[in-house]
């Protein structure tokens, strides 16, 4: 857990945190950079986990992506 | 306000100088640049559906999945009890399209056919160890779910309306939701929020055979969520969200019993549950490797004194500029509900009782592999996919020490094949 | 461990949600800066070469959905108004120009595309959305900034081009 936190902070610092310009979002526009590249798979997974475990799934949310239009 | 040409030019030069300095600070080393091969994006299905405007093409997806639970170990089950658990055939169908420049529409339909036995109640065995008694195997039960989604896209945001129905032999539920998101900071920051509600009615089967079973019960749940996401770099994004749910009404399981002081009694849980989940998601793309890393962590807590941690890691690897392979792992650990016991020697003063394994303390790991292959046919874009997942649970896998494992803990295999078409 | 400037720009970016100062884009009435950039299929593309014509300058990338949607629409506009000295120039912003070439080989257009993988031109023009296009009159002044692309933008754009093409000054 601590290692992942360190990685997150490192990525944050390394990126410089400056706003990414609209024409620099090619990587963010990739389907494999979506929150759920496989909506049906995620839907089924959430349903199974909700049925078989006690927890509640997380909420949806936007952001990332192409940023186009 | 009109500014002089000279002023605007001076401002532009100043901006360029600042950007040039930032760009120099971020430029990768010569070695990384040399290693960066031409990263050709996946052809065909290159544009993700979740963008900032309605889809320009219609897309249809179909998945077939086979879910099969491991049989209960003979040492954990009462003599003569059915050992085979659930087998479910799942069909998922999705369709989405843009209705206009600013309106998107989506439809999700799921149909499941289930057969098999489920845990019924737990009794103490000869040495006091908990022993699972299973229900008789059901021949077949079916569930159908339908969900409609409408999106209205603004210049820097989106409003979403959802409505759905879920129906089973003994169950009917309606749900609705409203959400919105807004982008800031040159679309680097997104804030979103939403509310949802669900109204469920359960009419348990075989109430003549089992007179203690309730004949008809209702349940309501209300959700609210808040989320914030931030672009951390040209290939890095993070999102954190909090969801709160209030569930009221009949929250017990009408098909389960709890063994109390020598006799099986109906499952009785509080008629109120406050739940909170906090999910953080991280995505990073490695250009040189042509791969993306997904990492999710979720913390959950409720007022039944349950809490859980979920860690998910997935690696999206593009191969030969076409095939995508996604290995993934998930680790889950939950504590127990306050009133849970495998069986009760004396009744609780608050009258609650449940031996449902889903309220017991345990941990689980899951690993899986998914493959997706896009191609073009008849001038349309298609993709075929196949996936396998294995889920294994056990009390010894929990983060905290568990004294007694519920004998009904489940492990399963999930196979999925799918096809997607864009037209 | 991390330089103060990084920490501060990070905090500033995260906290400046509503206070963020957007990049000042080239606006209607501004003179479009001249530029000379390598063409995607070789040669050079320069804006000043088209002085005296009505120019539609389109910033696009192959990974941008609405940009791809705009291409055939822009091509049809070009064909319609070409006799009236209407010229389209595109600036492709793919980091890897090979992707843009592959994209255009499947959906060819009749206008030149410059390549600017480093993004110097969109920075200079203050591009704040993808796609962004500038409609420039015969004297080199920006008359309309098209941010994003939707089907409903086509008709008003056609009207604007018609007016500028008719103005022979």
Give, in order, the helices and strands of chain C.
HEEEHEHEHEEH
Segments of chain C where pLDDT lies below 50 for 5+ residues? Answer: 5-9, 16-23
Mean pLDDT of chain C, rounded to whole units? 87
Strand content of chain C: 15-25%
Low-confidence stretches of chain A: none
Globular, elongated, flat, extended or rod-shaped: what is the shape of chain C? globular
Query: How do the helices and strands follow one another from N- to C-terminus of chain A?
Result: HH
Assign the CATH class of chain C.
Answer: Alpha Beta
**Strand order across the biggest sheet of chain C?**
5-4-3-6-7
Taking the alpha carbons of the first and last residues of chain A, their distance comes to 38 Å
Number of domains of chain C: 1
Counted beta strands of chain A: 0
Task: Please describe what this structure looks like.
The complex is a heterotrimer of chains A (69), B (423) and C (169). Chain A is an all-alpha fold. Chain A has a domain at 40-69. In chain A, 41% of the residues lie in helices and 0% in strands. The radius of gyration of chain A is 16 Å and the shape is elongated. Chain B is mainly beta and 423 residues long. In chain B, the strands form 3 sheets. A 16-stranded antiparallel barrel of chain B has the order 1-2-3-6-7-8-9-10-11-14-15-16-17-18-19-20. A two-stranded antiparallel sheet of chain B has the order 4-5. Chain B starts with a helix and ends with a strand. Chain C has a single domain, classed as Glutaredoxin (3-Layer(aba) Sandwich), CATH 3.40.30. Chain C has 5 helices and 7 strands. The termini of chain C are far apart. At the B-C interface, helix 1 of B face helix 2 and helix 3 of C.
